[in-house]
Amino acid sequence: MKLFDKKTAIYGAYWILVTGFFLYEKKYLLYKANLPYFFACVGVRVGLLIIIAYLNLHIFLPKYLAKKRYGAYVSAILFSVLTYLVIQSLYDYYLYGYIVGPLYNSNMWESVSYNFFSTLWYLALMLALKLSLDWYGQQLLIQRITVEKLHAEVDFLRAQVNPHFLFNILNNLYALTLKKSELAPDVVLKLSSMMEYMLYDSNDEKVPLTKELEYLNNYVELERLRFGASAVITFNTGQVGPGQKIAPLLLLPLVENAFKHGLSKQTADSALHISISLHGDTLMAQVENTKPALVSSQYKGGIGLNNLRKRLELLYQGRHDLQLQDQVTTYKATLRIEL
């Protein structure tokens, strides 16, 4: 149901309750007058209140209060209330003074006092209801905008990851083809499998963790082919159930950063150790790599890690922890995510 329909239903329920209250309050007229006067009394009172409420919500509020013309708003409200008092009090005086007659002691000032304060009370309730519904509608709008903004930012960040990754892999493939390496077809096959994942599966908000790890393993194997025996690379994963899901391409920046700014900068004795395990609903990922002593991993223009931080904040706010340790000859990244 749309918000407009909900508002209509709530306002309708409010006036049904108000009408029911007056029907109960004026039930003694059934004995002192007759049925038509009983319904006329309630109908006139509720009808006048509805008119005042309509003027307040649709004319006075947007025309005066919303524009901070408080004096004009108060004057308009008082004028409408006084008009109501004149009509309602004259009708009450006629009803109780002439129709009901001696069975009811009619008092004009008592009627005016009762109608004045009861009118202000019902107007206050209606205003509170109106402001509550507006606040609720605003919260729904803010929530929808926030969700749309989150999806837009995640899509933008994902779009940044893909070209960055492809640029590195194509460079690797280019180097192998220059050497006429027999490993090139295997690289193409693995890259094809990864492209299928990136083009189709990665568009989902969440993907099976098993697919994400398979994608990551293919990436590591491609890099292992490039480095050969010049680097010690290990990739260990624990048991992962088929029901666990994760945001796509979330772990790649940690591994990609280790290759690009660690192993690629070394000529010998380079190493990379990747460990990913699942403890209940908590994912632990640890990536540790060697690096030259004079090279800092806090490089300029680090798209991958910057994107990772933003995506974690957007998708796992309050449910993640990323620790980066930049030592003299090693760089270690530890990521914990509550899936």
Automatic annotation (TrEMBL):
Pfam families attached to this UniProt entry: His_kinase (PF06580)
Protein name: Histidine kinase
Signal peptide: none
Residue ranges crossing the lipid bilayer per the database entry: 7-24, 36-58, 70-91, 111-129
Annotated keywords: Kinase, Membrane, Transferase, Transmembrane, Transmembrane helix
PANTHER family with a match to the protein in the record: SENSOR HISTIDINE KINASE YPDA (PTHR34220:SF7)
Transmembrane found in the keyword field: yes
InterPro entries: Bact_2-comp_sensor_kinase, HATPase_C_sf, Sig_transdc_His_kin_internal
Molecular function terms from GO: kinase activity
Chain ranges of the Signal transduction histidine kinase internal region domain: 152-229
